[in-house]
Amino acid sequence: SKLTLIWSQNSVVADIPAYLLGELAAEPYVDRIVLDATIQAPGTGSAPTAPTNWNLSATGVQTLWNDGHTGTGVVVATLDTGVDASHPDLGPRFRGGANDWFDPYDQHPAAPADLNGHGTQVMGLIVAGAAGGYQVGMAPDAQWIAAKIFDDSNEATLSGIHEAFQWVLDPDGNSNTDDAPHIVNNS
């Protein structure tokens, strides 16, 4: 049985046989026992029919860009359905270290993936470039890292979400390195 420590909330995730729950709950070091839950991923909505950047114009971001605020030196993390690192507007912005991708379900442990598309869309709004002929993201010079909190069935467990929260605090697990993102988006 898998046993996972979630140190960020002082808890343990484990598969426990029902007949042992009463005995475990009676232990003085156990505050409470709760069942894990499953959450459904959001949909991606409909895609625009023509390239547009009205959203960027509406924010007035051009003024920030003119002042040099394009995201240089900033790392953004998303906790969502994943990110498609092969997307031409996002792939070049992936920080790309060994610990810059996290999949608590181990369905895509080696490289970023997104079978749903929602996480890719969200990351695109934040950091995507202009490979398609128009600027997409608010911070096109920022880098990204991501956790896939929704599995390939578009479901997330509470424990998987908490594992991702913990990961984003210290992606490489070494508190002596400065690898945490500057911004975290959890759509």
Overview of this structure, please?
The chain is α/β, with parallel strands linked by helices and 187 residues long. It is built from five helices and eight strands, in the order E-E-H-E-H-H-E-E-H-E-E-H-E. Residues 44-52 have low confidence and may be disordered.
What is shown here, in short?
The chain is built from 5 helices and 8 strands; from the N terminus they run E-E-H-E-H-H-E-E-H-E-E-H-E.
Which helices and strands occur, and which strands form pairs?
Layout: E1 3-6, E2 11-14, H1 21-25, E3 38-40, H2 54-59, H3 61-66, E4 75-80, E5 101-102, H4 118-127, E6 143-148, E7 155-157, H5 158-169, E8 183-185
Parallel strand pairs: 4-6, 4-8, 5-6
Antiparallel strand pairs: 1-2, 3-7
